[in-house]
Amino acid sequence: MNSKRPIRRDRDAEEVPEGIVFGRNAVRELLRSGREIDKILVKRGERDGSLPVICAEASARGIPVVDTEKEKLDRLCRGGVHQGVAAYASQKEYCDVDDILNIARERGEQPFIVILDGVEDPHNLGAVIRTAECTGVHGVIIPKRRSAGLTAVVAKASAGALEHMAVARVPNLAAEIDRLKEQGIWIYSAEAGGEDLYSCDLDRPAAFVFGSEGSGISRLIKEKSDFIVSLPLYGRINSLNVSAAAAAVLCEAAHKRHVK
After folding, report:
1. Residue 49 confidence (pLDDT)
2. Are 125 and 154 within 8 A, CB to CB?
3. Closest residue by Cα to residue 38 from 129, 154, 127, 147
4. Can you give the pLDDT at residue 212?
5. Which pLDDT score is estimated for 15?
6. How far apart are CA 143 and CA 97, in angstroms?
7. How far apart are CA 260 and CA 251, in angstroms?
8. 0.70 exceeded by pTM
9. If the chain, 260 residues long, is cut into consecutive pieces of 10 residues, what is the mean pLDDT of each piece?
10. Which of 78, 180, 184, 217 is the most exposed place for a label (fewest CB within 10 A)?
């Protein structure tokens, strides 16, 4: 009879989602490494020991710190000892908006950009990135807050497209839109009640804005847009999922840019 006890595998550690770092020492080392971090979750009401230092370092780097219930941290870390803190580390380094514009210049093309205003579902973000890559978009711009980051779920949903797509994350989407307009880029917001997309001139330096499924594009961003464009719909449902809408809009824009 074999008297050896079976090796107990640490199932919790295996099941923690890729890109999640938890525990105070681990998160502090992650901050020191300089690696991109999408956000840090801290147990609500807990600010003892090294947590204030972690929060201060994160704030200094512009990383969102979110108060979170213990139960959510427990689920995210699969029961691991998180000590009240966990971080979402990015799957890919973010670029600058200027890098996106340089990609267009290097290709000898008019800028073709996607801006996402409040898309928090990682599956939708991944799907939009996949469409953007397929249609020749030069880069995607997302805000630091109210947005999914470049997590493992996003990478998987993009079906590999994330590796080929430049993604910039900016602190102020409205200010970035102003800067793009100063450089001759036209802003198209995809929203209900606008001009028929198929009758619009899309063959120009352009950025296409898509909003969250719940609240759509924010009022300020719509006010800064040069055009509000809409897809004609013929069924009983009056809206598309953001990733489906982006696919239709970007395919039409790509067609008008490449077929003369």
Report:
1. 82
2. yes
3. 147
4. 87
5. 55
6. 12
7. 15
8. yes
9. 40 58 87 85 86 92 91 87 89 91 96 96 94 97 89 83 93 96 97 92 96 89 95 87 95 90
10. 184
Please state the three-class secondary structure of the chain as a single string: CCCCCCCCCCHHHHHCCCCEEECHHHHHHHHHHCCCEEEEEEECCCCCCCHHHHHHHHHHCCCCEEEECHHHHHHHCCCCCCCCEEEEECCCCCECHHHHHHHHHHHCCCCEEEEEECCCCHHHHHHHHHHHHHCCCCEEEEECCCCCCCCHHHHHHCCCHHHHCCEEEECCHHHHHHHHHHCCCEEEEEEEEEEEHHHCCCCCCEEEEEEECCCECCHHHHHHCCEEEECCCCCCCCCCCHHHHHHHHHHHHHHHHHCC
How many beta carbons lie within 10 A of that of residue 149, not counting itself? 25
pLDDT for 77 equals 87
Cβ atoms of 93 and 162 closer than 8 Å: no
Question: Which residue type does 26 have?
Answer: A
Torsion of CA 103, 105, 108, 110, to 10 degrees: 90
Residue 77 near residue 169, CB atoms below 8 Å: no
Amino acid at 211: G
Question: Cβ(100)–Cβ(166) under 8 Å?
Answer: yes
